[in-house]
Amino acid sequence: MTYVELTPLDLALAAILLLIPAAISVALKLGLQKSLAIAALRTTAQLTLLGLVLEWVFEANRWFYVVPMLLVMLIAAARAAIARSSRRFPGAHLAAFASLTLATTLTTFATTELVIGVDPWFTPQYVIPLLGMLLGNGLTGISLGLDRMLSDLIKERPSLESHLALGSTLWEASLPHIRQGVRNGMIPIINAMMIVGLVSLPGMMTGQILAGADPTHAVAYQILIMFMIAAATALGVILLCLIAFKRIADPMARPRWEVISHHD
Amino acid sequence: MTSPRLRASNLTWTPPERPSPLWQDVCFELHPGECVGLDGESGSGKSTLMRALVALLGTERGEVHCGDLTLSPETVHAFRRRVLYLHQRPAPLAKTLDDELRLARHYASRHIPAHTRPLSEDEQHTLLDRLGLSHIPLTRTFERLSPGEQQRVGLVRALTLQPPVLLLDEPTASLDTRSTERVEELLHELLADHPTRAILLITHQADQRARLTSRTLNIARWHPASHTTPNP
Lengths: 264, 232
Fold this sequence. Notes:
Chain A is mainly alpha-helical. Helices cover 76% and strands 3% of the residues of chain A. The longest helix of chain A has 34 residues, at 215-248.
């Protein structure tokens, strides 16, 4: 298998493609030219930097290079997850970090150790991209789950309080909303699993094929990845919703409504 | 035996965006057999006070007792089972009317207070009938009921638990004259048949207050001095 290495000149040529959205933006007065230019620069800068860091980490091949890198990824993902949720609670960032860390590292290392059989355990070529894939999808899942659960609790406050007034426990009264949150967080990955290969060609698989991998091998990895994402997302969203419930529960069997904040 | 059914002492609450309490050092007692009115202008804090009595609202200080039971994290479920707060606009517990009644029986089966017996399914239907709701199919969803029907279903739900103390927030606000009479009749009977019970009632209808209550608490007396307008 061969693959064509892209030179900076090739990429500069590809940047001409960006003239199309830029022209549309100008023609229709969308006012997106500036954002587009910044986005293009950021894409280039961020990915170039990532490439350098990865090369460095791969070369070093030491756990104390890999683990901090994973930590940075986890922190960034937790921040992004909470930023995307319109409803939050005190300690949401830490809770998102804890849920994502537990869910994705468990899934990643279970897979690298038991399924792929990576040696040593921190082999960056496997651990970093796998964790990255799980985080990218997991953070969407947990933010959708949290957002839905908290919005539902607020929307259904009168009904919730009707249950409480009749002597229901806060857990019983909240459970339908926790369920709805978890369900909402898991729907995207289930939908993705339904249509993968029919409508969408997954990015990772495309990348592998472009890089010269045998399509059947790329497919095998993609299947593995989808299963891992499903597992990590489910774990992460359940954890975050349960932590959120714990955090907003008042000992007097009522939600502490005042701690649920709204952000647009 | 004149030990109070419900006793509130020193309840104080400040709304989130206000510098001073809306009501403070609220102290009162409900005695067995009493129906007491809770009076005050709109926004004076009657509903919030009622909600605070069952800890749906957190107060800064104060205690609530029902007989030997003190409202606390350990007792809150049993307490709400004994002191039942009924919202002015009851919200759905479940989808259909049948589910509503079933859930009410489910909650009624727990922490049953001494000397009370929850309503059976048949008794619930008798009550629906008395309140003029027997025409509603049990498969009807709560949302499709009229506000007046919802309010009466809320009352049936609450009475399923046969609570010793009822906190009623404008229980006839959405009802026509005939239905209002039926509810008032029912409340009269409730106290006459079980003289150990007590009711706290918010109502804006002076005639209703006269018909049902034996005395009235005006919430203005618990407003901080700076917020009360002197009464001539």
